[in-house]
Amino acid sequence: MRIGVLGTGMVGNAIGTALVRAGHRVMMGSRTRDNEKAVAWVAAAGAGALQGSYSDAAAFGELLFNCTAGGASHSVLVAAGRENLAGKVLVDVANPLDFSQGFPPSLAVCNTDSLGEQLQRAFPELRVVKALNTVNCNVMVNPSLLPGDHDLFICGNEPTAKEEVSRLLVEAFGWRRENLIDLGDITMARGTEMLLPIWVRLWAKLGTPNFNLHVVVGPPPAV
Ligand SMILES: NC(=O)c1ccc[n+]([C@@H]2O[C@H](COP(=O)([O-])OP(=O)(O)OC[C@H]3O[C@@H](n4cnc5c(N)ncnc54)[C@H](OP(=O)(O)O)[C@@H]3O)[C@@H](O)[C@H]2O)c1
After folding, report:
1. Cα distance between residue 50 and residue 207, in whole Å
2. Is 72 in the pocket of ligand 1 (CB under 6 A)?
3. How much is the average pLDDT of 195-201?
4. Between 212 and which of 109, 147, 150, 204 could a Cys-Cys bridge form, CB atoms 3.0 to 4.6 Å apart?
5. pLDDT averaged over the chain?
6. What ligand 1 atom has the least distance to the C-alpha of 37?
7. Of all atoms in ligand 1, which is nearest to the CA of residue 94?
8. Nearest CA to ligand 1 atom 35
9. What average pLDDT score do residues 108-136 get?
10. CA-proximal residue: ligand 1, atom 47 (nearest)
């Protein structure tokens, strides 16, 4: 499959590399063609890896990943060009983190709205699936890095888009089907993005970003 990865940071790099290894052709998009990090990624990832502008990558991909800073994601999609987004699935990995007051960051949008919803509203031609934003990029593409069962939340308005993304998560990244928790429509992104305040504190406490959450369900309460 042809996949456009928007973003040259550690997330774009990890996701792009895993997708190339799984046999996909991947174009990494950036604000400028020949971005230094994108060129280095192409050289390292090898055959199947390409780079270009946000618009090049969006036009190239049959499916897209948003791996850009949350505060920039809207302008990145504008730069990608609506004509290049029409009908495509966008896996939104971004978080609306606001570091303006230092660490830990706050959320630029929360409670009654989310970045995932904002992007879906602003670009109705996209089929936005929020996924992977609650784990570090090492875990995103290599869940077996962590021992035992641990879970990944996904949400979005379209069941077919969520199924397409779930297949990719299983086949390209190695997630187990039973650990994918479909929370429902894109408004559920409020919940997964609001996990970030606890995620960054756990990171500071544990001293490693390589951890995840596991939901344990007991019997229903007796009535
Ligand atoms: N790091 C993780 O493990 C992790 C885990 C879960 C979720 N996330 C989320 O995933 C996203 C990517 O994270 P990251 O750590 O890889 O990198 P990042 O530093 O958050 O974002 C890097 C990307 O954002 C783009 N960008 C930044 N400001 C921009 C602007 N004003 N206009 C256009 N593009 C802009 C950069 O563009 P250029 O390429 O042009 O420089 C770069 O491609 C973030 O939303 C983050 O919250 C990260």
Report:
1. 34
2. yes
3. 98
4. 150
5. 98
6. 39
7. 45
8. 72
9. 98
10. 95
In the reported structure, the alpha carbon of residue 66 is separated from the centroid of ligand 1 by a whole-number distance in angstroms of 9
State in Å: Cα 222 to ligand 1 middle. Answer: 47
- Going from the C-alpha of 59 to that of each of 26, 39, 84, 177, the distances in angstroms are 12, 19, 5, 30
Q: Which two tokens stand for residue 169?
A: 């998560």
Q: Which two tokens stand for residue 9?
A: 């940071």
Whole-number Cα distances in Å, 6 to 29, 44, 58, 197, 216: 5, 18, 8, 24, 34
* pTM more than 0.85: yes
Token pair in block for residue 3: 């996949």
Residues 6+ apart with CB under 8 A from 209: 136, 138, 139, 203
Question: Could you read off the pLDDT of 10-41 as tens digits, one per residue?
Answer: 999 999 999 999 999 999 999 999 999 999 99
Q: Which two tokens stand for residue 183?
A: 């929370």
